[in-house]
Design goal:
The structure is a single chain. The protein is mostly beta strands. The protein has a single domain (16-176), classed as Pnp Oxidase, Chain A. The protein has 4 helices and 12 strands. The strands form 3 sheets. Strands 3-2-6-9-10-5-4 form a 7-stranded antiparallel beta sheet. A hairpin with a 2-residue loop joins strand 4 and strand 5 (45-52). It is globular, with a radius of gyration of 17 Å.
């Protein structure tokens, strides 16, 4: 297949969407939409996200050294978009959106009640970049919706969870599974 070169950019990076949660100094929950996320360690499990620019969430994660990563479903798309487009400095997003929150089971982080999969993370590393940072958090607890019965490897149905996928400028939903890891070695 023929290829051509383009300028270095961040234009294509389909990712699941998470609302990163922290508490403001007054105790109000604060969330922002982050799509630059992944795992960077298996043992112990470490979740990382990158963020750039001036954001209240970045300040609070650096100050409190903990955060929640709340997986967003397609049903939560409006909430995710609202939290991503509005500043925590000037609004109480959770009151504006009337979304239920509770405190984490292990860490003092806000948990979104409608999120089916939530990581409670303790910050272990902050890696500065030109106009942002990479935040690495050790997963201290995972809260999973009780409708997800089997959480073992290869058993979680993405179609049932229905995560919101972000690809620059657009939101998507997952379709059907088309194969399982290792299928190429099976005869």
């Amino acid at each position: 297949m023929a290829k051509y070169s383009i300028e270095p950019q961040r234009g294509f990076f389909p990712q699941p969407s998470y609302l990163i949660g922290t508490y403001k100094d007054n105790g109000d929950p604060n969330f922002t939409l982050i799509t630059w996320t992944t795992f960077c360690s298996a043992n112990p499990p470490k979740f990382m996200f990158a963020s750039s620019g001036k954001k209240l969430t970045r300040e609070l994660v650096e100050k409190n050294r903990m955060f929640s990563a709340n997986l967003i479903t397609t049903e939560m798309m409006h909430l995710a978009d609202y939290c991503g487009m509005n500043s925590g400095y000037s609004s109480n997003k959770m009151l504006d959106m009337e979304v239920g929150c509770k405190k984490g089971e292990v860490l003092s982080v806000p948990i979104l009640e409608p999120s089916p999969w939530v990581y409670e993370c303790q910050v272990t590393d902050i890696i500065s970049q030109e106009n942002g940072a990479i935040y690495v958090g050790e997963v201290k607890n995972i809260q999973v919706d009780e409708k997800i019965k089997d959480t073992s490897y290869c058993k979680i149905s993405m179609k049932d969870i229905d995560p919101l996928i972000y690809a620059p400028g657009n939101y998507y939903k997952i379709g059907e599974s088309i194969g399982q890891v290792g299928f190429s070695k099976q005869k």
